[in-house]
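> forwarded from #structure-qc
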C-alpha cells in the first residue's frame, strides 16, 4: 500500500515538474518573441509595399527589408547583391572622390492622371492585411504610375479621398463620379499638361471571368467601359478600341473587350465627356490577387506608352 502511495506521489511530482517546466519555457518564448518583435519595424505603408511590388517583390524577400530599405537599396540588394550603396566605392579611394556639381533638372510636367471613382474597391486579401495594407484599386493606380514613370511618362495619382468629397457635399455613394469629376477638374487646372485621364476600377465578376494564364503566369483581364449618354461618346469609344487592340496584340485573352453602357441604373457618362482621352478600365475583379494585377499593369504600362507615343506625336506633327 505504501509503495503504491509513493509511486503515485512520484508521478504527481513528475507531472507538476513537467508542467512547471513547460510553463517556464512558454513564458520564456513569449518574452523573447515580444522583445524581438518590438525591435523590428513592421510599419509597412502603401509606399513601401509598392516598392516591394515594383521591384518584382513577389518572391521570398525579408519583411524587415521591405519595411526599412528604400527603393534604390532594395533594387541593389536583391538585383545586384549589394547591401549598401557605399559598398560600390572602397574606403581607400572614397575620400579622394570630390562631389560632382549637381545640376537641377527641369521639372517634367505630368501627362497622365490616374484616379479611382471607387477608391475602396478591393482585390483578394492576403497576409498583408495584418499590416493594415489593403489591396485596392488605389494601390493598382500607384503601381501603374511607377511603371509609366519608368517608361518616361510622367504620371500622377489622385490622392484625395472620394469619401471626403462625398461627406463634404452630403452626397451618397452614387455620386462618386460627380465627386471624382471635381477632382479631375482641379487636377487639370493645377496641371495643364495633363493629356490622358484613366479611372481604374475592378469588376465584381466570377474569378474565371477575370483571370487568364499566359505562358504559365496568371494575369488579371482588362475590361473597358464606355458611357453612351453624351454627345461625343463615339470619340471615346474609338480611343478605347485603339488601346484594346494593343492589349489584344500582346495576348487576346488579356482583354475582356469594351462594354458600352446606357439606360436606367447606370451612370452612362463616367466623366468621359471631360476629355477625348478619358478612359474607364476594369482591371481584374474582386477575386484576383495583387500579383495578377501587378502582372497586367506591367503590360498595360507598355501598351499605354505605345499608344501615347503614336497618339500625341500625331497631335504635334
Amino acid at each position: 500500500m505504501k509503495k503504491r502511495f509513493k509511486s503515485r506521489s512520484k508521478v504527481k511530482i513528475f507531472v507538476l515538474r513537467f508542467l512547471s517546466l513547460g510553463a517556464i519555457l512558454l513564458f520564456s518564448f513569449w518574452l523573447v518573441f515580444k522583445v524581438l518583435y518590438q525591435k523590428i519595424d513592421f510599419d509597412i505603408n502603401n509606399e513601401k509595399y509598392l516598392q516591394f511590388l515594383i521591384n518584382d517583390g513577389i518572391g521570398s524577400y525579408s519583411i524587415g527589408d521591405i519595411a526599412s530599405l528604400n527603393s534604390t537599396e532594395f533594387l541593389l540588394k536583391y538585383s545586384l547583391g549589394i547591401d549598401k550603396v557605399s559598398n560600390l566605392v572602397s574606403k581607400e579611394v572614397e575620400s579622394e572622390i570630390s562631389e560632382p556639381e549637381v545640376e537641377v533638372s527641369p521639372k517634367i510636367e505630368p501627362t497622365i492622371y490616374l484616379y479611382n471613382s471607387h477608391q475602396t474597391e478591393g482585390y483578394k486579401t492576403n497576409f498583408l492585411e495584418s499590416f493594415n495594407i489593403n489591396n485596392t484599386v488605389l494601390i493598382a493606380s500607384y503601381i501603374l504610375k511607377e511603371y509609366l514613370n519608368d517608361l518616361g511618362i510622367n504620371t500622377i495619382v489622385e490622392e484625395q479621398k472620394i469619401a471626403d468629397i462625398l461627406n463634404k457635399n452630403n452626397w451618397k455613394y452614387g455620386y462618386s463620379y460627380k465627386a471624382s469629376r471635381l477632382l479631375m477638374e482641379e487636377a487639370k487646372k493645377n496641371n495643364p499638361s495633363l493629356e490622358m485621364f484613366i479611372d481604374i476600377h475592378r469588376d465584381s465578376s466570377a474569378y474565371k471571368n477575370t483571370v487568364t494564364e499566359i505562358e504559365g503566369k496568371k494575369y488579371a483581364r482588362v475590361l473597358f467601359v464606355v458611357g453612351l449618354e453624351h454627345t461625343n461618346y463615339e470619340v471615346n469609344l474609338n480611343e478605347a478600341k485603339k488601346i484594346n487592340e494593343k492589349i489584344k496584340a500582346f495576348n487576346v485573352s488579356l482583354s475582356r473587350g469594351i462594354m458600352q453602357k446606357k439606360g436606367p441604373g447606370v451612370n452612362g457618362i463616367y466623366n468621359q465627356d471631360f476629355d477625348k482621352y478619358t478612359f474607364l478600365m476594369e482591371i481584374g475583379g474582386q477575386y484576383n490577387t495583387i500579383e495578377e494585377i501587378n502582372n497586367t499593369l506591367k503590360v498595360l504600362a507598355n501598351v499605354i506608352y505605345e499608344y501615347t507615343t503614336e497618339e500625341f506625336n500625331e497631335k504635334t506633327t
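QC bot note: The radius of gyration is 27 Å. Residues 112-316 form a domain with the Aminopeptidase fold (CATH 3.40.630.40).
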